[in-house]
Amino acid sequence: MRRNGPLALIFHTFFVIVMVAPILVVCLVAFTPEGFLSLPTNGFSLRWFRTIANYPEFIHAFWVSLGLGALSSFVALLFAVPAALAIARYRFRGRDALAALFLSPLMIPHVVLGIAFLRFFTSAGLGGSFAALIIAHVIIVFPFALRLTLAAATGMDRTVEIAAVSLGAGGWTLFRRVTLPLILPGVISGWALAFIQSFDDLTMTVFLAAPGTETLPVRMFLYIQDNIDPLVTSVSACVIAVTMTALILLDRFYGLDRVLAGKGDTGR
Amino acid sequence: MSAAAEERRARAPWALTAPALMLFVGVLLIPLAMTVMLSFHDWGQYKGIEPVFILKNWHEIATDPYYAEMFWRTFRIAMLTTLLTALLGAPEAYILNRMSGRWKSFFLLVILGPLLISVVARTLGWALLFGGNNGLVNKLLMSLGVISSPIPFMFTETGMVIALAHVMMPFMVLSVWAALQRLDPQIENAAMSLGAGPATIIRRIIMPQIMPGVLSGAIIVFSLSASAFATPAIIGGRRLKVAATLAYDEFLNTLNWPLGAAVATLLLVALVLIVVGSNVLIERRYAEVFR
Which of residues 85-114 of A touch B (CB under 8 A)? Predict the structure, then answer.
């Protein structure tokens, strides 16, 4: 295969700089020693990270986001694992329609989902509650949990299961001792990807969150609407750090290209 | 296999999918149906929502030029964003694909990683870069002599398109990347051995083969941009409304839920029609590639 010419490399450099610049600038400004938005040209300082401690609403929102992401991804898996096993193993009428339904939250704009859930949960008397947030997040992260579990279940070697059945294993034992360990890498990656999606969601959550159940993205968004100061950059830097950690874990355990390549054709 | 075992086998997939199916019907399909219903209800400043069946909201959207302008702006921004991601993302995917192993996976991570980083944080980055007339982008462009006076980026459609294109770019790169993986490098070599120059190879060999990837990437980018909320809300400010930010305002500021529901329903229906329509067109045009 031919190599890239100089023109291609110049384009590539420009492209990468533009892709990284906004993220880099947020992380740099977070370390400014000044009291206003500026690049840390006179040395680095952690003062804006310490300032976060004076804003309990950010810290509370962080814990809400963390709990919401962990819990909703887990609940989504409870529904997604059996569904994935059924879709991977059986050819039945309505299989394609079911798969399409389960992946549909990817195609429905989150603003529409936010409105639909707001209307639904308000009528059900759950408006603004943490329970409503969990249920809504289960729906939006479900496709990600399902997709990675499905990939693991489809690629699984079923002869091991047949061997276990011939040795007398059945039902729950078969699932717990044989099937689940075999698909576990896919399940854990599905959980991690689902967690990131939940942790980052703003558009849908902004409709559902009330004071007390505001997630970190919602808190940040509402804060930015009023004013932009170095405080939100230091909070953003922390969010980026959390996501990066999850990303690196995902890459180690599963391979980021596999996770993302699965995601690319979702909009269709 | 005995009849009983046969029957159990036939029922197994339904038993396994039943919980998820019930969840989706209960908390996805019913709320969506309720939203469509809501768009036909009446609303007044003092009486609140009245569950009657009227076309008032739809009539207002159809006749008030404010909504036509807002939907047209949403469409224009999504279209320009799609164009920008295709023009920059497709060549970049091609360049990436020609890199050697380690650089390739490194840059793939750098370019695709932002996909998983909070949209609020990424848009905040652009707000910092644009930041008024003394923003870094303007300073850079002026010192390079590209422009003589600062361009307003904040609270403009230009700024929205640039920031949105950045947010959506990974989807385009991924989609073209996937198409490039299916491409046989030997065809390029064959063309070269037959005397084709680089420009001819790109135009006659590469382009036709990655076009389905570009187009399916374009559909993803378009539908996500048309319904984007965070970026238009932060870069566009309070005045420059798109469909998603307008629906948000109706719901949480004006509290006219039925009207907001109508805007959201229209957005959903328009997007489904555009996405399904262009998918059909693409698959007909490139039937041989998808086979």
Answer: 85-87, 89-90, 92, 95, 98, 101-102, 104-105, 107-112
Determine the 3-state secondary structure of B43 from DSSP: strand
The whole model's pTM is what?
0.90
Looking at this predicted complex, what is its ipTM? 0.90
| Rounded CA separation A87/A110 (Å) | 26
Task: Give A75-123 pLDDT, tens digit per residue.
Answer: 999 999 999 999 998 888 889 999 999 999 998 999 999 999 999 999 9
Domain tally, chain B? 1
Q: Which of B10, B107, B275 sits opposite A16 (nearest CB)?
A: B107
Residues of chain B with C-beta less than 8 angstroms from the C-beta of A251: 109
- Residue B39 in domain: no
The mean per-residue pLDDT over the stretch B174-188 comes to 87
Q: Is the CATH code 1.10.3720.10 the one for domain A56-264?
A: yes
CB atoms within 10 A of CB A11: 16
Angle at A96 between CA A92 and CA A101, to 5 degrees: 120
Phi, psi angle pair for A93, to nearest 5°: -65, 135
Domain boundaries, chain A: 56-264
Q: Give the pLDDT confidence of A215-229 residue by residue, as tens digits.
A: 999 999 999 988 888
Residues in chain B: 291
**Dist. CA B94–CA B96, nearest whole Å:** 5
